[in-house]
Amino acid sequence: MIEKETRAVCPLETGWTLGWSDGISDAPLEWAPAWTPSDVQLVWKAFKDMPDYNFGKNYLEYRWMEDKFWHYRIRLTPEDRPGYTPTLVFQSIDYRYTVLVNGGTAADGEGMFTPVRIDLSPFAGKETEIEAILHPVPKAPGAPEGRAEASRSVKPPVSYGWDWHPRLVPSGLSDAVFLEYLPVSHIEEADFQYTLSDALDAVDF
User: Fold this and answer.
1) Which of 28, 43, 181, 188 is 20 to 30 A from 196, alpha carbon to alpha carbon?
2) Termini Cα distance of the chain
3) Closest CA to 102 of 84, 124, 81
């Protein structure tokens, strides 16, 4: 008999801070209270009481943000649950990222449609620092300023500016972040093969 798989999910919506730097190894000079999901523009807007980018040319005051490294940071203590694996899950990171766990690189990649999962078993029962660093937004080398800069990524070209749309390229932890405790033995993924009859009235697995 196979027992029903159980898991526990602990959302990480608050407790974050956010800062920016000019280099991936540089420490931010100031930190803002942050949350997830969020974009760096929204967090920094709230922190600095910046003007609403929906009006006039206020969006120009946000332009510098796309060329910085943004550091999301949180401290947490994964529980040591026998038989379970504590896993840090980012449902979506926009766009190019490096994730550090206690200063060591745990994930490095790009794209916002594949969740990032990090095994925190070595840190179970210990206070742990997580830092998700977002690189400057992607821009196709040699492309003219505007929507053509998005041609080497899957970010929406409209955010790079169009004749009917101001430029505002988002970046951030754009979906849920949580700690997940999965049974050590669990189904990672499943694939089912089937064959339909020619009459489409029966199926064989």
Assistant:
1) 188
2) 22
3) 124
